[in-house]
What we know:
The complex is a heterodimer.
Chain A: H1 2-22, H2 24-31, H3 35-38, H4 40-47, H5 60-82, H6 90-117, H7 123-126, H8 131-156
Helix pairs in contact in A: 1-2, 1-5, 5-6, 5-8, 6-8
Chain B: E1 3-9, H1 10-25, E2 34-40, H2 47-66, E3 77-78, H3 81-84, E4 96-97, H4 107-110, H5 118-127, H6 130-133, H7 145-151, H8 159-166, E5 173-179, H9 184-197, H10 206-210, E6 213-219, E7 224-225, H11 236-252, E8 263-267, E9 274-275, H12 290-305, E10 313-314, E11 317-318, E12 322-325, E13 334-335, H13 342-364, H14 366-369, H15 375-378, H16 386-389, H17 392-414, E14 418-419, E15 440-441, E16 444-445, H18 450-461, H19 469-488
Parallel strand pairs in B: 1-2, 1-5, 2-3, 2-4, 5-6, 6-8, 7-9, 8-12, 13-14
Antiparallel strand pairs in B: 10-11, 15-16
Amino acid sequence: MRGFFIIFSLLFIAPILALVIAAKDAFAKIYEAFSFMYGNSLALHLYGWNGTDFESNSLYVPAGLILYFLTLLSVITFYYFINSIRFSRWYHWLIVFFANAILVYIITFSLPYSDYSNYEIADDIIDTIFSGDLHSWALVNSILAILLFIIFSFSLRWWSSNCSTTPIPQ
Amino acid sequence: MAKLFIFAVGGSGSRVLKSLVMLLSSGVKINASEVIPIIVDPHQGNKDLKRTVKSLNNYKSIYKQLGDNRESFFSTKITTLKELVPDEDRIGSTFSFDLKGIQNERFQEYIDFTNLDPNNQALASLLFSKPNLRTEMDIGFVGNPNIGSVVLNQFKESQEFISFASNFNEGDRIFIISSIFGGTGAAGFPIILKNIRNAQPDLPNHGSLRDAIIGGVTILPYFGVAPSDNNKIDKATFISKTKAALSYYESNLSDTRRSAINALYYIGDVSTRDYENDPGGGGQKNDAHFIELASAMAIIDFMNELSDSLIPTSDGVATDPVFKEFGIKQDKDSLDFTMLGNETQSLIAKQLSQYMLFHFFVKNQLAKEIGKGRPFAEKREPRIDSGFTTAPFFKNYIQDINQQFEDWIRELARNKRGFAPFNLSPGVLSEFLNGIETKRGMFGKKSFDYKKYVEALNSVEKDSSSQTAEKKFIDLFHQATDKLLTDYYDYFKSL
Lengths: 170, 495
């Protein structure tokens, strides 16, 4: 169990450290690798462009934190809170896997959506942002959630009494 | 720790020995480094003997794969006499003592009656009736201990007895199981006891033998036989034979001034059932009886509770013999664990319950769990997979002995007096114990099913450090069943 706490602590602290050291740039760097999917205009808004400078709050930070911790919570819930023989097969894992991806999609979609629907986007980019971009942005988060879910699963499952061989026995 | 040599004499001896095997299989501890049973029964076709030998062989095969120093099922070593003397070709490799000269022979041929001189013939005719002389001995002595006492005398000249003596070390113990109302047991017990106490100097370790700590259980009538015109066994003679034998024992074996036996256990019951009147030709297969289980517990009591200092021997005499009886708390026709004495419950209730749960899972659920990626089976090497379940350890020995255990429990339950601690077809698995309820939870009585059982197996898997798949398998189930009983029943905490 000590191993579990060590790895969990590292995973828990990692994003916080990233925030402290590099603030919004830490998350921006990761997300903007996928900006070709959701468009540069939305990328600017997410980074905090207010038409004059980048002093507005970046949505990358809350999106990144939600994505990261929600996925971590989903994995912990499956392996340690549910931790049931009745819910331990590979398809049960897939249920939580997809549920997490969908939840992340919905939440991260809603983050810029309120700005979009209330026209609280800088005038020089508002006409180049479309709802499809918001969906693409949410999809990027789902893809990242999927990747993180797999990483967290294989990092943390070993100490689960009933699900340590889910989804694949070692 | 000392070795324990057990002489199981006659049909009752075999059946008690089988009960002992079941207790040891379930993990009941006995204070002995190894147990060496020697079955003395002329009736080799006796189905009870065959069943006992089969269970002994299964146990031995299982133990061989598991090894020593475990707190688990099958933790006591059982050996044959042959394994103690592997170079001796003149003794059989089984657990039975091979009585010579009785196959296809009548008693009169055995004593060479026709070649006796007239005086000896007259004496023999006084001692033995015509039916006695005409008795065919390959089905036993059919309730005639006077025949048995002649035939069984060959035991002291036998290679088995010599081999036994050669391997008897100071500190080792002996226990003799016999019934008092039959033929073989009633004759065999005093003969074996006498031959050990009167060990002559030419016998190896004769000094250790003479001063050996010897216990015995003598089983009083606990079943009858149905009346039959053509048959040689009449239950009406059981009591008179018992009285005669007890009188002999009092004068010759257990006289407190010169007792040959250190501890004698008497066990019987007033509640009896008539078995089919089969003197042996049909195979003699009687249902297991609670008295046999109680007799097996006498062996455990002898080894665990009576230290050498309590029952010493000096110069071939047991100077402080102990005589014991067995009692139960409630006089009911069908018993469960709660009706037994507290000490009896402490000795066997948890262990038998654990084994019963083990059997249920192996029989009803294991095949469904294999290959499903369950942590208890597949997280760590060695794995419990289809390769394990098709290997002889599981497929032959474990499944076989488990079936024998179920048969034994079933027979105990349907006998009179019955012993029925288990419900063999519970609707909910946690209701498998008769007379014992589960703990109360927030929403009523707690219960468990096979899913919870698997979770228990998974939870103890983390603590499992066994090296072979066989050891892992047995240890896992021992620990998981212990966890289930502790978590779901207050009853076992109080034992």
